[in-house]
Amino acid sequence: MCDFSLEFVASRVAVCLLPGTELAFQKPVECKRGWGVLSNLVIEGSVARFRQINMDKPRAHHDALEFPNGQVVLLHNLVEGQQTSVLQLPVKKNDVHAVDEVRMQNAAA
Questions:
Q1: 8-30 per-position pLDDT tens digit
Q2: Is the distance from CB of 40 to CB of 79 less than 8 angstroms?
Q3: Measured between alpha carbons, how far is residue 45 from residues 40, 42, 64, 88 in Å?
Q4: Which one of 30, 35, 75, 77 has the lowest number of neighbouring Cβ atoms within 10 Å?
């Protein structure tokens, strides 16, 4: 899913990720807080899972990262310029069934 709430922010590029995609940041993750008045928050850990929140609120930001400690941060609040790599894409239910079928065929052969 994509969060198209970036329409008024010219310096960002929208990237689409599936919920459940695991990401690894090159450096500790920094988030803005207090509308930029307070100092940035540094998140412990450099791995996060992409997810969507507040889906029942159509005018809210939905795209977020969930860290292993349970902390959830909206993508909207990330400090610009951070780099990340995709560690793992989510597995869909159909993919699991396809893998099981291949395993069964291999076992029978």
A1: 555 557 668 889 999 999 999 99
A2: yes
A3: 15, 9, 15, 17
A4: 35
The length of the chain is: 109
Of 1, 11, 17, 3, nearest in space to 60 by CA = 3
Strand 29-31, strand 47-52: pairing: unpaired
**3-11: Cβ within 8 A, 24+ apart:** 3/61, 3/62, 3/63, 3/75, 3/76, 5/61, 5/76, 11/80
pTM of the model: 0.69
Contact 90, 23 (CB under 8 A): no
